[in-house]
Design a protein that fits this description.
There is one protein chain. The chain has about 220 residues and is α/β, with parallel strands linked by helices. It has one domain: 3-Layer(aba) Sandwich (Rossmann fold). About 25% of the residues lie in helices and about 35% in strands. The strands form four sheets. It has a seven-stranded mixed beta sheet with strand order 5-4-3-11-12-14-13, with helices on both faces. Strands 6-10-7 form a three-stranded mixed beta sheet. β11, α7 and β12 form a beta-alpha-beta unit. The longest helix has 9 residues. It is globular. The two termini are about 20 Å apart.
Amino acid sequence: MRSVSREEFSAIHSKSYFAEHATDQKIRERYFPDFARMGVMVEVGGGTPEFLSMSKHFKDNGWRVVIVEPNPLFASMHRAIGNEVVECACSSENQSNVPFTVVSQEVEAYGGIVTDHSFSSLALKPSYVAMIPKENVSRRSITVDARRLDSILESQGISDVDLLSVDVEGWEIEVMKGLDTTRHSVGVIVLENLMHEASYTEYMRSIHYKLDTKIEYNYVFTAG
């Protein structure tokens, strides 16, 4: 993190929050209460720039934010407003031309319309398929590149990450397996664990991260 001057702080200070269950606000208050310090955040599965965004609050407050997003529509929306975006899926291995399923629905939730935000992923895991509504939903397959998270960080010149958020519809552990934490220091890691699977906590423990708190189905891990 870096510190900013009082003038810079006054110009960018924002207490608007956007994530579901106020997750971004709770993360801010618990781990990053000093608004004058700028950090680095990586959001894997960025969705759209504002709706349900885990990163927008931090970007608005002067942090460097890198969005990893495979949906071409969402990636283009980030680029259009000057966000730093890497257009690819994130997995345990680097692969080209990987099938990615976009699940489209129009459901009003969280004060907006959920379109391709939910369920879209590299492959639909059975537990998630069971949750997809039967009506007003369409699926289409596109081809994307999949990259390890550590290779993405290296390509962006990032060695240390203050906050990592991963929301990829059941593929969160595969994303983490693509990150060598001996080469990249990450302070706080937020994994969506919709099914509350014990394997998430077990894997994170194996790479020396402890479960510090839960915000609904968002599991928050810290080193140690």
